[in-house]
Amino acid sequence: MFKIVRKEVLSDKIILMDVVAPFVAKSCYPGQFVIVKIDEKGERIPLTICDYDREKETITIVFQTVGVSTERMAKLEVGDAFRDFVGPLGVESELVHESEEVLKSQKILFVAGGVGTAPVYPQVKWMKEHGCDVDCIIGARDKSLIILEEEMKKYAKNVFVCTDNGSYGFKGNVNDMIKELVYNQGYKYDKVIAIGPVIMMKFVCLLTKELGIPTIVSMNPIMVDGTGMCGACRVIVGGEVKFACVDGPEFDGHLVDFDGAMKRQRLYKTEEGRAMLKLEEGDTHKNGGCGCGGDK
Amino acid sequence: MDPLKRVPVREQEPEVRAHNFEEVCYGYNMEEAVEEAQRCLGCKNPKCRTGCPVSIDIPGFIENVKKGNIEEAYKVISLYSALPAVCGRVCPQESQCEKYCIRGIKGEAVSIGKLERFVADWARENGIKPTVDVPKKNKKVAVIGSGPSGLTCAGDLAKMGYDVTIFEALHEAGGVLVYGIPEFRLPKEKVVAAEIENVKALGVKIETNVIIGKSITIDQLFDDGFEAVFIGSGAGLPRFMGIKGETANGVFSANEYLTRSNLMKAFDEDYDTPIVSAKKVAVVGGGNVAMDAARTALRSGAEVHIVYRRSEEELPARAEEVHHAKQEGIIFDLLTNPVEILSDENDNVTGIKCVRMELGEPDASGRRSPVVIEGSEFVIELDTVIMALGTSPNPLISSTTKGLEINRRKCIVANEESGQTSREGVFAGGDAVTGAATVILAMGAGKAAAKGIDNYLSEK
User: Fold this and answer.
1) Phi-psi region of B369 (alpha: psi -120 to 50; beta: other; left: phi over 0)
2) Which of A26, A77, B296, B456 has the fewest CB atoms within 10 Å, counting from its CB?
3) Do residue B238 and residue A229 have CB atoms under 8 angstroms apart?
4) pTM of the entire structure?
5) Distance CA A97, CA A117 (A)
6) B148-193 residue pLDDT tens
7) Chain A residues with CB-CB distance to B271 below 8 A
8) Distance (Å, rounded) from C-alpha B55 to C-alpha A284?
9) pLDDT digits (tens, 9 = 90+) for B372-404
10) DSSP characters for B126-144?
């Protein structure tokens, strides 16, 4: 069992937890992910690592409640435990392997969307700890979904916050923010690392391609085992089939087939939706819809 | 009773079992087992043993069954196999022990597999456990993977007095016995979990949720005081065909489909993991995994077609599995090969374009190779395609272990007799070495490696 030692509610539907997981905490790096399973009947859920403490042997995870399993996870409290917690999975971020000179020679912009701010955080922290100043955009639909802003400010030189509705920070999405920085405020970047919803990463990549800035993205597709066994996490990168779990999760954003990735994400929508309804309203939706048969 | 014929085994009716996940075969009861055992001639020079990858003393255990002394029979089998209830169910006996049975020359071979199963099931139901009574050696051995080869290797080493820890990447021990082979062929709680408990009863520790190569490396295991390592990590990576449309929604590897159903129990409403509710499915391939995927989809309510490019004779699946699949209503589209997967604007599968094949000259494998019949293209409309084309070993361990030699097919190179790899103190066996094969061959390799490790540590 893997015990929860800290829980914070970051926003309405976003939860942060520190979980004791010695094997993972000893060997993980930014960019990697874990798979958690709440109990015997739970799903295996992949979550990118948000932070780690080698001494306390803890891993920080952040998740948004989007379905039945994350809804159940959100109900766990300090002292409760996950039945399973395995990792680190996937390949660490490229920047982990680069020398400090190379890192310092580049000006990197991190773009974090919504709950995607969590996996950006350890990379920004890593950069600072290796003597590099980086900038970071945190974007979300509205103020309530902006997370980890204070934490990020500790390690990033500049943190730019934007919200679609202008309820906090700059009004506009992350792409509007990038344009504002590059076109109006004279910022120059050699590399962008963008993590967030697939649709956000798609549009950031279209823009950075135009701007000629190499861009890395982190994919979080449907997975089962996370070790290359099931092939569910296939992503097309540069025309080739890659498994996000063992070849990624980070890829060259200018080569990723985002449209294909979005279509794949919808695969279990009906099943997942059904499970959610069952959780909220009981087992009345076995055959879909309201059970009146009108949907047949 | 005709001595040329075997005692028939009771099974769930095909039309009933096509709608449930309960075990297909009920196995023998005491009376039936004793009667079938009488058919064994007790050969002085038992050919059947030479067909068994772990050389079980078959006439020896059957002799005890004849007398109704099942506990003794179980003790005889336990000397050779840690997983008799599993092997009695999933071994391809017809091409191993039973193939060499003298009874089989004139009539039907003795039903060795069903007798083994009866003995193991009886022992479990009567609370008989294997025992170990040897002095502890105080030497630590790590076993990577808790599938058939790992469990066998660990069990044998424990019986020799070693301190054995198995590391398993998934959340459940059992490897392919848990994620690959379906409930209706190999019950998980009743059979697999019980046999794993027996291995634990020998003193073997099992740590789940540890991925060697990621959570900890082989070098770190040596640093932690393990003196030898056995790699039994299996062949987990699925193959795809490389045809157009293969990334569409509704195309699954058999591994994914079976893992969702078997390991994650997606077929059970009480479990959270979803699985597609397919209406019409094509399973591409003709091996045991293809049959397992097909019969799982059938039980979930789909119309299921096996699409295989050669003819029935070449089907690599066990005859019993093909027979069961047909009884249950699986449709076999033989001499048929997919060339493209069709999908709609949302990338959901709508059909599969196939060509008809005919058999030409024998190829390197000795099987007649299929040749496309020109102009024979046709479309099967369906919503789900499951690719069951075989698997290859996972590179997670080989890529993180210096000096571990692998071959062209990414399989770990290991000595067949001792399991020794190119790294000192590191042994390997099972599918990680051979590529996808059978449970019993993996067990044979685990057994050989246990001896190899014992020799190595005794001389060290």
Assistant:
1) beta
2) A77
3) yes
4) 0.89
5) 22
6) 999 999 999 999 999 999 999 999 999 999 999 999 999 999 999 9
7) 41
8) 54
9) 999 999 999 999 999 999 888 888 898 889 999
10) TT------------EEEEE
